[in-house]
Structures are given as C-alpha cells and as structure tokens.
Predict the structure.
Amino acid sequence: MKVLIIEDERFAQEELCRFLEQIKGYEIEVVGCLESVEDSINWFGSNQEPDLVFMDIQLSDGLSFEIFNATSVTCPVIFTTAFENYAIQAFKVNSIDYLLKPVG
C-alpha cells in the first residue's frame, strides 16, 4: 500500500510514519511527506495517486481543502487534525476517517 502524508509538523510526520511501520500484515510504503498546499498540488500533478493519504487540515500555507479545489484527488483520505470543527467539510471530500491529534 502506497501512503502519502501531508502534514506540516515534522514531529507529527515522524509519529505517523512510526505508527504505520508497526502495522503488521501489510506492506506500507510512505511515498512522500509534504508540508504545504502548494507542494501537495504539485505532487498530485506529477505523481501516480497513492492508495491512501493522511492529511492534516491546517498546513503551512493554507487549508488542505484547497488541494481538492486545485487538483483531482480520488483516493481515500484520512484527516488527522487538532480541530474538530472541520469534520463535516472533510467528509464532503474523499475522507474515510477523521482522527483528532494526537493520533496513536
């Protein structure tokens, strides 16, 4: 399973990677860790879509929902955020889950 992490906090990226490494029975490859809306839009424009995306809501240059407005994201997304007030908006895009930080 190819997983993309979109998270602007380095510690949260590392924790999520550690969490994914502990999952048994699946081959999980983290194909990238991105920190901004702009980097994410560029990544989706030049890479094959992953099987799953873990996505923070508030990134270094805006809200992650801007990614969906600028490019096509059809794979499942698990939002990981400290803000519960974006849950309804998250489920209007490809969200399959909405996890509040800290995750794990």
